[in-house]
Amino acid sequence: MSELQNKADELGGKVKEAAGDAVGNDDLANQGKGEQTASKIKQGAEDLKDKAAETLGKLTDK
């Protein structure tokens, strides 16, 4: 998943959370919070994968 897709998912979660808060729908607000958290976890995993590939590349170039 790309960084752009993760940001879009995070934004969608923020919209759901705000909508849920606005209409008093705790389930929708919590779903939005969950989507934001999932997006951040996915982005962290992508960052870790990129760092691992970068480190491996540095090790194999020597």
From TrEMBL:
Belongs to the UPF0337 (CsbD) family. Residues 1-19, 43-62 have a biased composition (Basic and acidic residues). InterPro entries: CsbD (IPR008462), YjbJ_sf (IPR036629). The lineage of its organism: Bacteria, Bacillati, Actinomycetota, Actinomycetes, Mycobacteriales. This is CsbD family protein. Pfam families: CsbD. Residues 1-62 are annotated as: Disordered. Residues 4-52 form the CsbD-like domain.
